[in-house]
Design a protein that fits this description.
578 residues; 18 helices
């Protein structure tokens, strides 16, 4: 199962759990059938990224790298089947955009809250610097001249446009045949200029980055300043909801790259892995990290725990509810989050340390059967059987609280099956990153490029657009209404279209071609002739005089007096008299 599973790989062949239906979700969650297809809403399992045999041999999801769970002292407190109520503190933090923009703010104003306006100047400087260095190395390039911030802003706008209207090749956007030309961008920029901007486009100076293998070498130096700047804006410009989820996202890339990951069970199998924390209520990407692989070929101990703590440290102490899958979940991690007033819930692998044997070794056969154990009155471990066995660890669910899910029997009738509240909560709120991925995949900016870092840069542009779209959609000053006064949902396509126009603005780089027709040729066509029928003189009419001559201009096909011929044409075609 893709993107988040409910069971351990060790139980995969014997358990029967097949997920939840829409009837199982709380009323406040979104409609899965409406927003996703079946492959979108499946949440990840341990077998997402490696074959089951590798997982059974103790390998993690990082290209076969073995993850060593850290030894944590004082975590051997006994579990008890005696259940007591868990007190979960209320979440009372403000939610939504931090800076409220006025009703005159446009799409570009929201976009530049995530992607700072000064970035265009920086990119223009680095592009000019890189172009100059390449010209000094390879010789003069007669088609290149220095760019500026306005042109870089328009260049980003053109790339967003190419993500909306996709053509088989880039040259087709500049086709001379209007029948096959998909957009009007060729009216604003020439193909040669666009190609040169693509060729020399650069965003960071990597000359100060130490060589590979040297201390201080940064694998992401090509985009590091922009990546960190956008991370800061994502964390500070929007206050997340109570629930937040952590999962992995992928930036597709199939070339040679040391940080490229292979996840065979994911829709995007090869690419750059992104650890992400997103809001399950709307898909806002609150924070992210790019996974750069092992350091000095040494396995990182407790990678999953470190990622969760890094991505949630900004929201500790605010009673948030964090949801993660079984790659991250462990007893020590959840205990540390709880100590910092952050609650957590997630599926858990049965081979994790410090779990009760009655849960990890539970032999459940009938639908609705469950085993629950509680630790120190604050953490519960659950084994619940649907069609497969689900193992859940939670510090936010009351073990005494029960709910039900509807299941269809073979004869078509529906029955209510008992279900722990922790399982239902996990199903409802584990989809934040999946929802962000779905928004990002619509009209994605990224196009094929020779440089790997450009894929990562366009990923940053995409998440800037998505986060800006969500902020504008939720803005009280930007509520859209229909002609009848009903509230109308804001559309991402329309947001991207308006943003493209605003980024391009008045930019115009198009050759001015001299007219093929000559003045002499135009003048030869205007001759006074007898038209044969009396009509009012056009020039006399302008002066308030009524005359009906038979003479006129053959080319213009208007009646004119002989004396009016020159004044009429001088006013109508001044270029003929220059």
């Amino acid at each position: 199962m893709e993107n988040g599973g409910f069971f351990d790989s060790e139980n995969e062949s014997t358990s029967d759990f097949d997920g939840f239906t829409n009837d199982d979700l709380p009323d406040e969650t979104f409609d899965l059938d409406e927003r996703y297809n079946s492959s979108d809403v499946d949440l990840s399992s341990d077998s997402d990224d490696l074959p089951l045999s590798r997982l059974r041999n103790g390998h993690n999801r990082e290209n076969g790298n073995e993850e060593i769970e850290p030894e944590t002292p004082n975590r051997t407190t006994s579990w008890s089947p005696v259940l007591t109520d868990i007190q979960v503190d209320a979440f009372v933090q403000p939610v939504g955009a931090v800076n409220i923009l006025g009703n005159d703010a446009k799409e570009i104003d929201f976009f530049e809250q995530i992607f700072p306006d000064e970035s265009y100047v920086k990119i223009a400087q680095e592009t000019n610097r890189y172009a100059q260095s390449r010209i000094e190395q390879n010789g003069d390039d007669p088609k290149w001249f220095a760019t500026n911030a306005d042109e870089i802003r328009a260049f980003i706008g053109f790339n967003i446009l190419m993500g909306i209207v996709i053509a088989p090749t880039q040259d087709m956007y500049f086709s001379m045949d209007a029948f096959f030309r998909p957009t009007g961008m060729s009216d604003r920029i020439t193909r040669d200029r666009f190609d040169k901007l693509c060729q020399y486009f650069h965003v960071c100076d990597i000359s100060t980055n130490p060589d590979r293998g040297q201390p201080g070498h940064d694998k992401l130096a090509h985009v590091r300043p922009f990546l960190e700047a956008i991370r800061v804006q994502c964390r500070t410009q929007y206050s997340p909801h109570c629930e937040t989820s952590i999962d992995e996202a992928m930036v597709a890339y199939t070339g040679r790259l040391s940080i490229k990951q292979y996840l065979p069970m994911k829709p995007t199998k090869r690419g750059i892995k992104i650890w992400a924390r997103a809001d399950p209520h709307n898909g806002f990407l609150n924070d992210f990290q790019v996974y750069t692989g092992k350091v000095n070929n040494v396995v990182e101990t407790g990678l999953g725990e470190r990622v969760v703590k890094d991505l949630t440290r900004d929201i500790w102490g605010k009673n948030h509810r964090v949801y993660c899958d079984n790659y991250f979940t462990s007893v020590p991690l959840f205990q540390e989050l709880l100590d910092n007033k952050t609650y957590a819930c997630g599926t858990v692998r049965t081979n994790r340390k410090y779990l009760p044997a009655s849960v990890t070794q539970a032999k459940l056969k009938h639908q609705g059967e469950m085993v629950i154990e509680q630790k120190e009155g604050s953490m519960i471990a659950v084994a619940w059987h649907d069609k497969r066995t689900v193992n859940i660890l939670s510090t936010l669910s009351n073990p005494l609280e029960r709910t039900t899910v509807k299941r269809k029997k073979k004869d078509g009738t529906q029955v209510d099956v008992p279900c722990p509240q922790a399982v239902k909560s996990y199903t409802a709120y584990m989809n934040g990153v999946d929802r962000a991925d779905q928004l990002r995949s619509s009209y994605s900016v990224s196009r094929r490029a020779a440089k790997w870092w450009k894929y990562l840069f366009w990923f940053l542009i995409d998440i800037s657009i998505i986060n800006a779209f969500i902020m504008m959609k939720e803005s009280a000053n930007h509520i859209m209404t229909s002609k009848t006064g009903r509230k109308k949902e804001r559309c991402q396509l329309e947001f991207r279209q308006n943003l493209t126009k605003q980024l391009v603005g008045t930019y115009w780089h198009k050759r001015k071609r001299e007219s093929i027709q000559k003045k002499a040729t135009d003048g030869l066509l205007h001759w006074p002739v007898v038209l044969g029928k009396k009509r009012t003189c056009k020039q006399c009419t302008l002066q308030g005089v009524r005359r009906e001559p038979t003479s006129g201009c053959e080319q213009c096909n208007v009646n004119l007096c002989v004396g009016c011929f020159k004044p009429y044409h001088k006013a109508k075609f001044p270029a003929l008299f220059q």
